[in-house]
Amino acid sequence: MLGMLLGALVLLLLLALLIGILLPAREQVTRVELFKAPVAEVWEALSNLPGQAQWRSGLKSVQTLDDDEGLRWVEQPQQGAASILRKTKEIPLQELILEARQSGVLTTRQARLSNVPGGTRVTFTQTLQIAMPLRRLGNRMQGGVDNRLDNFIRQLRTKFST
Length: 162
Description:
By secondary structure, this protein is α+β, with helices and mostly antiparallel strands. It has one domain: Alpha-D-Glucose-1,6-Bisphosphate, Chain A, domain 4 (2-Layer Sandwich). Helix content is 35%, strand content 39%. It has a 7-stranded antiparallel sheet. The protein is elongated.
């Protein structure tokens, strides 16, 4: 009986591993959003990483690291492990690209801002690269890169609706 149970468990693990291997290691999603706020206000919310702890639920703190000329931060969620963020590109009031690495996962989020009648249009592009097949499967089961970006945008929208 124990042998059959152990065999079934190994079979399930191998099946999960196979599914993870078949999933692409890289996912990318793009969203275009309109915020009824001036470009400068939207830019401030996106580029002031320590200030995001005030409006992003689930984010405990963001601390600037003393090295690397102020381009790196440690983002500590309410639950789970911290991740290190790095600004890879910043054109004030126009474009911001952040990169986060955590346990074999590389996340890149790009925000391109443009002034439009009635507010600011932001084109978000988020890319997620996961090396480990079982993590790929787990990520997909939690909604993948779509869910992460949609959650971020929803919280940013809430910040400007209050």
